[in-house]
Amino acid sequence: MEKTKLLEKNMEKRSKCIVYTRVMGYHRPVESFNIGKKGEHRQRKEFVEPKNYL
Fold this sequence. Notes:
Distance between the termini: 48 Å
Order of helices and strands: HEEH
Helix content: 25-40%
């Protein structure tokens, strides 16, 4: 099934997901950011610590 048709079919089951990020020591919803900060948030890369770190 095509992705858009699947989304349309299940529209009533969907709910809004609020994404939070840590800013200056506290958590804040990304949806409250201004346009520039939202763009910056999209460009961030997740830090993954290597397992063999000495």
